[in-house]
Amino acid sequence: MSATTNYVAFDLGADSGRAVVGRLDGGKLVLKELHRFPNGPVRVLGALGRDHLHWDILRLFAEMKAALARYVGEYGPQLTGMGVDTWGVDFGLLDAQGALLGYPYHYRDQRTEGMFEQAFRRVPREEVFERTGIQFMEINTLYQLLSMTLSKSPALDLADRLLMIPDLLNYWLTGRKVCEFTDATTTQFYDPRKKGWSAELLHKLGIPTHFLGEIVEPGTVLGPLHPAVREETGLGEVRVIAPACHDTGSAVAAVPARGKNYAYISSGTWSLVGAEVAEPIITAESLTYNFTNEGGVCGTFRFLKNIMGLWLVQECRRAWAREGRQFTYDELDDLAAKSAPFVALIEPNDGAFLRPGDMPARIQEYCQRTGQPVPQGEGPIIRCVMESLAFKYRWAVESLEKATGRRVESINIVGGGARDKLLSQFTADATGRPVTAGPFEATAIGNILMQALACGDIATLEEGREVVRRSFDVTTYEPQHPERWEGPYARYSSLTTSE
User: What span, in angstroms and rounded, lies between the C-alpha atoms of 253 and 451?
Assistant: First the structure.
């Protein structure tokens, strides 16, 4: 390992983006946030006279370049590498000259409503899963493209290349048009057995394939930073590296657990509950549980379940802010902790909670519809969310054990949600397992680890995880009176679905 080496990780989430400097120094990794900027959907009038949600991708790229210029101002022009990770499923289309064909859609846009029914008329659900091993969510790229196909979008005819969001940003950084493996698997048209795009599935659905390109592994050096970006930012020669470009892939790379008998929860806007496996698990059981097999780093797969996550809290907080009631996340946790337990529960993955809107009202409507007491006020609503998330995590862990045949002895929560002490304790209580929370910056850490691996500053993923263990503190939560959660879990189980 080099004595001192600097990397920049761009970590773009659905709520915000940031640039983080990672400094490998004497066997430890030190992080410094260089630049943070907001992110979120932009609603505009679009196709067929309907309003649609898009990403402001040009502003995000401008923020990235601003971060690089700031790096030069603080550290000088020398940088060993940079890497980009973002959310999955969304994409941009380029024409034959490399120009972007419109702003990328946001995965919560309404255009995918009803696409399950349209898809399964053409290809049975079981066949889609058998070919891809990916869970069924209307937001997946497959259903976004099917929507465009059915609406006869002219962009499909004009498109020369489909690039997922991190691949689009990498193209603008380097001029190279490739798709990185971990993000490509989120499309639900990557075949993990054939190790390539499932053109046959797309043909059956009537979706074009001419715009699909090369797939590269995480840890691939994409090339030097484009001269135009170097000139604008003042950087010198820099390698642009594809880490795990899907943010969950990067987060899981940084999980500091040892052995195999653990589950991870990558906690943020979404909660991803799963295990690292050597081969995809594509079985009738994993289809029943609607688990997914997303690409991982160093030849692994992430066998996991997507759960709505802290999106529910974020949307509640936004709704109350619109009414003039501003709360920090800590304040909401404090109100929840003081509220009565197990008054009402929700199924976090219910479709009513997917789109932006008045989340407190939707939670109340769900409780009324399911014959439960309706929570009133901020504390009871957030308590309902937190307890329900903890129960959903338990369901996912127990389903994971059945599908893998492997006992889960402990749970590692990583990502921003690991800061939530109340949810971490509830998770330990609901599952009856010790929970280790941290590192909080797992996504940026995993991004940097894969860059360091590509550059030879670490030799193996396990060596990188040992660096994480030396560098970052974690907190352990032991179960407290888990027996009190048994009766309420039985109530929750009557609500839960595989979705």
Answer: 12
- The single residue of 85, 247, 350, 429 carrying the catalytic annotation is 247
> Which pair of tokens denotes residue 217?
């592994």
User: Strand 161-164 and strand 91-94: pairing?
Assistant: antiparallel
Asked whether the whole model's pTM tops 0.85, one would answer yes
Catalytic site includes residue 247:
yes
Asked if 243 contacts 447 with a C-beta cutoff of 8 angstroms, the reply is: yes
Residue 474, both tokens: 């974690």
CB atoms within 10 A of CB 99: 10
Q: Are 28 and 471 in contact (CB under 8 A)?
A: yes
Per-residue pLDDT tens over the stretch 9-63: 999 999 999 999 999 988 899 999 999 999 999 999 987 678 999 999 999 999 9
Q: In terms of Cα–Cα distance, which of 22, 143, 7 is closest to 79? A: 7
Which letter does DSSP use for residue 205 in this model?
H
Q: Give the Cα separation of 72 and 75 in Å (integer).
A: 5
Residue 76: partners with Cβ closer than 8 Å, 6 or more residues away: none
Compute the distance between CA of residue 419 and CA of residue 442 in angstroms, rounded to an integer.
Answer: 12
Q: How many alpha carbons fall within 13 Å on the CB side of residue 169?
A: 31
Three-class DSSP category at 131: helix
Assign 363 to helix, strand or coil. helix
Residue in this structure with the two tokens 């120009």, named with its chain if needed: 99
Lookup result for tokens 């430890």 = 28
Residue 111 CA to its chain's centroid (Å): 21
Give the C-alpha separation, 186 to 40, whole Å. Answer: 20
> Would you list the DSSP string of 146-188?
HHHHHTT-HHHHH-SEEEEHHHHHHHHHHS---EEHHHHGGGS
CA distance 475 to 413: 10
Beta-sheet strand order (sheet of 16-25):
28-38, 16-25, 4-12, 81-85, 239-242, 220-224
| Distance in angstroms (rounded) separating the CA atoms of residues 72 and 82 | 13
